Amino acid sequence: MNFTQPIPTLCREGDGVVILDQTLLPHRCETRRLDSLESVAAAIRDMQVRGAPLIGATAAFGVAIGLSDDATDARLDAVIAVLAATRPTAVNLHWALARMANRLKPLADASRHEAAWDEAERISREDAETCAAIGHFGVDLLLDLAAKRNGPVRVMTHCNAGWIATLGAGTALAPVYEAHARGVAVQVWVSETRPRNQGLLTEWELRQAGVPHSLICDNAAGILMTQGEVDIVITGADRVALNGDSANKVGTYLKALAARDNGVPFYIAAPLSTVDFNCPDGGAIPIEDRGSEEVYTVLGLNADQAVTRLRLVPADTGTANPAFDVTPARLITGIITEAGVYPPGELAALRPAQ
Question: What is the CATH number of domain 138-350?
């Protein structure tokens, strides 16, 4: 499948980049220009860009932007430190920054700025190719299920792992788009994913693509599985440990538990850049706490169709807001990568040569 993003999530424009501002979706579709290190860091931290692959690519471009006037070792180290501090859980951020450092450190200062742009653009192109490969391998799972059913293959997902989270077709949604392009009937259960409601982004994507789907409250996932309404669960990941434990948007673990209890296969779709080969297991994955404001409020449209943030509870309400949870490898049927579909315990064999 040759997938073209309806709206580029990230592209170079002169000495800056233009992003699709995800904090306004699905209510407004707007782009934003980033032309300073500070604006790139804020875009990652405030989730104007989100999704592990897209975060990594944005950080790579942030390095190029940050070196515009000074490409010394000290400046390169400082730029990487600023970007590395934006989000703790998504390992693609740190993978991309390490790749940029490895590419740029051996070069003379005068060569680094343009080389940084070249490497960032290479990371972007590779991500699009990776998404296509994930779709290629993942669609076989849906084809196998389709051969056993008279109706559509019913896929459940959580959060958003589609094209707006990547530079290509997405990760968890790439097999869905591939199946839809081949004429395979699919029906997607889209969980809302409170408190950020990133499932609404998946709903927006699928609606634009013409893929049949239904939006559900997060807590409806279990009963749908008990009623036999789900054939497969596929989610993305922000970090996968060496043993296969996988961190994804909070609520993923609950779906994995329900899937295991009801005999529903549960898959993670993630590029190898999301596998942290230096992280032994899920206990070593840092879990981001995003604070109370996201729990206090919700973004929506008022009666005048204006985007409005509404307060749900008083500001002094006690909250906890872990942004991710970890699904143990024992609950994961397989991990769909650009190299194929692997049982969680076999990821170590994919470790890149040192």
Answer: 3.40.50.10470
